[in-house]
Write a structure and sequence with these properties.
This protein is an alpha/beta fold. The chain is 48% helix and 11% strand. The protein has a six-stranded parallel beta sheet with strand order 1-8-5-4-2-3, with helices on both faces. β9 and β10 form a beta hairpin. It is globular, with a radius of gyration of 20 Å. The structure holds 5,6-dihydroxy-NADP and zinc ion.
């Protein structure tokens, strides 16, 4: 087993009506004045927000509301949230929503604790946050894993850049997970979530540092569980057990556990973030659109690893390593297809892209010259990235 550090301090409150415990959890973590961050209105329509407001009033917790977070959340909106948090004197940020809302809450927490620093400087690594406000999350969609992760991803529209900021200060103090809160999700968002959950483990599983037995077993078990329960949730979005599995998998897939001892690859995420930065593509769709092209391009780096994935996750038995590896990629792409996720660039809203656009995407993917390569399983330089986009451009 390779050396690793594991730190996952987020307290999990899981189950029916779990959100009712939120006020006492916020108090435990020092919350006296709460900024509630939410998205485009799903929690108003579902009645969750009014219920939470009533609970906060009952608990004598003053709060202010900051809604309007959009998918692929914007830096400019987070900056407004920082102003709101400072003006209100918030000492705790409560996110109610998915990855976009939680990431915005994390950004607001950092900005409010460091009001003299330009917020984006942290994302560009020109400064490192020395402090942040505590953040708690009520999760409404199993997907990004931000509820336990150390990362916050923002889009800077002025620079046309979408990027993450990682550090242990980003880990929420607690995450409330009531699977019933997902029942209002549209099928597309459920499918995006399943894809993203799988990808957080796949982007760790394909690693050059192997020999981490338990890590591999956890990763493979999680992938089997997500794929099986993903099918059930797509058939019946109110299947409590299936949604429970997806919700817990979303957190475990991105809190570090499924990659302990291995170096993360995350090239597929970077290829996908580029599509989201350029076209506003939903995160899950940005990943399924390129995964097959990526996998076929890098597979020759380690066919036995892809074959192990085929055997342990997809139950393939017949054939050589190379045959099983190839079949495993095909089966995974076909699973995304069954979820009605795009499996090529041509299936995204923009349709098949021009050569010039592929060059531009390649440039954005490398932070317009700010980076030489992406990924670790197989290091991808400019020409590799271009080839992957080209192969996906069907
Ligand atoms: O905004 P509202 O109205 O709430 O609607 C949202 C949004 O339109 C809707 N939704 C969420 N819960 C719902 C619901 N609709 C009905 N019923 C519910 N219960 O779903 C839409 C998508 O929400 P979003 O928060 O964007 O989804 P997700 O959780 O997939 O988050 C995606 C964002 O997280 C980032 C992605 O890049 C993307 O910006 N990620 C964050 C990570 C992290 N911080 O660790 C890691 C990930 O790899 C990812 O990059
Ligand atoms: Zn992701």
């Amino acid at each position: 087993m390779q050396a690793f550090t594991f730190y996952s301090p987020t307290k999990i409150i899981f189950g029916k009506n779990a959100e009712e415990k939120t006020p006492e959890e916020m108090k435990e973590f020092g919350g006296n004045r709460i900024l509630i961050v939410y998205g485009g209105g799903s929690i108003i329509r579902s009645g969750l927000l009014p219920r939470m407001e009533a609970l906060l009033k009952e608990a004598d917790l003053p709060y202010a509301l900051f809604g309007g977070v959009q998918p692929n959340p914007l830096l400019s909106h987070a900056e407004k949230g920082v102003q709101e948090a400072v003006a209100f004197g918030a000492d705790f940020i409560l996110a109610i929503g998915g990855g976009s809302v939680i990431d915005t809450a994390k950004a607001i927490a950092i900005g409010a604790a460091n009001p003299d620093q330009v917020l984006w400087d942290f994302w560009e690594k020109k400064a490192s946050p020395k402090r942040t406000l505590p953040v708690g999350a009520i999760l409404t969609i199993p997907a990004a894993g931000s509820e336990m992760s150390d990362s916050a991803v923002l889009t800077n529209t002025e620079l046309g850049s979408k990027r993450g900021l990682s550090g242990d200060w980003n880990r929420p103090k607690f995450a409330v997970m009531n699977p019933e809160l997902t029942y209002t999700l549209p099928p597309f968002q459920i499918a995006c979530g399943i894809t993203d959950i799988m990808m957080h483990t796949l982007d760790r599983y394909f690693t050059t540092q192997q020999g981490n037995g338990l890590t591999d077993e956890i990763a493979e078990g999680l992938l089997r569980d997500v794929m099986a329960n993903g099918r059930k949730a797509m058939e019946n979005p109110k299947d409590y057990d299936a949604m429970s599995e997806l919700m817990w998998c979303s957190s475990i897939s991105h809190n570090g556990l499924t990659g302990l001892g291995g170096n993360k690859d995350f090239a597929v995420h970077q290829l996908g973030h580029t599509l989201s930065a350029r076209f506003g593509t939903a995160h899950g769709a940005s990943l399924s659109a390129v995964w097959g092209a990526w996998a076929n391009y890098v597979m020759d780096r380690d066919p036995p690893r892809f074959a192990r994935y085929g055997r342990h996750v997809l139950g393939l038995t017949e054939g050589t390593d190379l045959e099983i590896a190839t079949a495993a990629i095909e089966l995974t792409v076909s699973y995304f297809g069954q979820l009605k996720m795009p499996v090529s660039l041509g299936e995204l809203e923009q349709g098949v892209l021009s050569e010039e656009m592929l060059v531009e995407l390649t440039d954005i993917c490398l932070y317009r010259g700010g980076r030489e390569s992406i990924g670790t399983f197989k290091k991808l330089e400019r020409s590799d990235i271009y080839e992957i986009y080209r192969a996906a451009n069907r």
